[in-house]
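User: Please fill in residues for this 248-position structure.
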């Protein structure tokens, strides 16, 4: 299988950006394995779900970022779990963490969002972890689309744990407005849950229409990514995408 393109900035200002989305289960598993997987994927942006959000969560997230060659961009406890890490290649324009309406009896959910630049390419970014409850999940899909549009960027990417397969209503709502990157350019593995028995795709990366998807999938054959690390790092498998973002 061919490798995804490396990160690059072109003379015309466009950029190839590598985006990783990963549910890390509050770093309750093998954090050294988790850091090795992230590092091997060489991402420019890391969209996390279930980042630490309680006792000393900032310290835990900072430790993961340092161990994987990233810096904290936004999110964690302030977004009820979603977070964004980035490499030093990104120029950060702004960040915002958003808490979604709380349904009594269900978990608080939120979005971690940012606007960043790579060369002449300006990109809106959103990390999400949608509800376990179908009706709330569908509503949150609409909020995601609204929030992504509200970032004020021509091009944007969103990724996360949707808690739903591609034939579900929330997933289809997102795929109707955005590119489902895995469908647009399949690469690597398809299923993200569970590492021990991959049988369903409930994690995804989406991009706005003007972004060219160069490949997207579970990085099973990415150099440096070992099956043992994927099994030890979390109860989800990560999704890696390479995107070509036009100059803004």
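Assistant: Residues filled in for all 248 positions:
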């Amino acid at each position: 299988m061919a490798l995804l393109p490396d990160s690059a900035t072109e003379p015309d200002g466009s950029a190839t950006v590598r985006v990783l989305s990963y549910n890390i289960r509050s770093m309750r598993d093998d954090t050294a394995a988790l850091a090795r997987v992230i590092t091997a994927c060489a991402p420019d942006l890391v969209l996390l779900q279930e980042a630490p959000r309680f006792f000393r969560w900032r310290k835990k997230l900072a430790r993961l970022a340092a161990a994987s060659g990233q810096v904290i961009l936004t999110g964690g406890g302030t977004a009820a779990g979603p977070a964004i890490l980035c490499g030093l290649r990104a120029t950060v324009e702004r960040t915002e963490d958003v808490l979604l309406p709380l349904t009594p009896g269900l978990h608080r959910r939120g979005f971690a969002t940012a606007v960043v630049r790579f060369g002449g390419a300006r990109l809106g970014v959103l990390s999400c972890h949608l509800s376990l409850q179908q009706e709330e999940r569908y509503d949150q899909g609409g909020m995601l689309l609204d929030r992504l549009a509200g970032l004020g960027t021509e091009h944007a990417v969103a990724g996360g744990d949707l808690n739903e397969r591609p034939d579900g209503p929330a997933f289809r709502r997102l795929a109707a407005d955005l590119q489902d990157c895995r469908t647009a350019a399949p690469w690597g593995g398809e299923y993200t849950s569970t590492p021990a028995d991959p049988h369903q795709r409930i994690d995804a990366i989406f991009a706005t229409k003007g972004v060219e998807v160069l490949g997207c999938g579970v990085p099973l054959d990415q150099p440096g990514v070992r099956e043992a690390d994927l099994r030890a790092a979390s109860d989800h498998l990560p999704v890696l995408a390479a995107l070509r973002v036009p100059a803004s």
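For context: Residues 134-150 form the longest helix (17 residues).
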